[in-house]
Amino acid sequence: MKLAYQISQRDVRVEKNITSYHGDYETCFKRVRECGYDGVEIMVANPDKVDTTTLCALSQKYELEIPMICTGEIGGAGFTFSSLDDDMRLEALRRAKGCVDIAAALGGHINIGRIRGSIDIFSAERSRERAVTALIELTKYATEKSVRVALEPINSIVTNFINTTYEGLALVREIGLPMFEIMLDLQHMYLEDADIVESIIAARDVVKYIHVMGSNRLIPGTGNSLLDIKRTIRTLHDIGYNGYLTVEIFQRPNQEVALQKSYEYLEPLVREYR
What we know:
By secondary structure, the protein is α/β, with parallel strands linked by helices. The protein is built from ten helices and nine strands.
């Protein structure tokens, strides 16, 4: 397993609950490399503002892989696949395809979290159909570029569409496209799944990627001890997972401490299985 940290720059607004190390890309790559990580996940709000050439050069310069492009802030800006507004939905799909293009250029993949949207309780069938149709169109587009689409189950405080790992697995089966898989976020699993280990085992054939954090979305190892990261990493090893554990946390008490302390906690746990 490898370790990565989520980063972002000017296309993502800075707020108290930002989950990425934020700054110009040069600084972000430099600091993540200095801490010892293997890769960076790029949070994107508007792919039109992302300089892929610069990212490619920095990836080579600092020897950091870019395994994932995070689309969450597109959904955070109100552009979602389930939207009943045609313009908003089409813009969500356009931006998601832009993220696929970025991922293709960098050798990574994309996730689908908040961008899928929620189901409108008064037009449930229609809004769900719009979301699923968009996911199919996006995955077919991504497949042509050898990019995988990783569906992220998200807790029910954020959305009412795909909350648990098992709901995510059901949609993966429903869509049935080989490049449409699943990613797991430990905090969402902690909030929604009955047993994290059982969920990981159930997803073993299609899990592409992992977000890691404490139960409070702070530095891994903090929060409720019921989120047992050591046991989780051991389970991932047992199912043969050798991908990324990527830190996605609130940058508290500040982003330098969050970056460093996360690595210090996770690196010994991962080293045991390398």
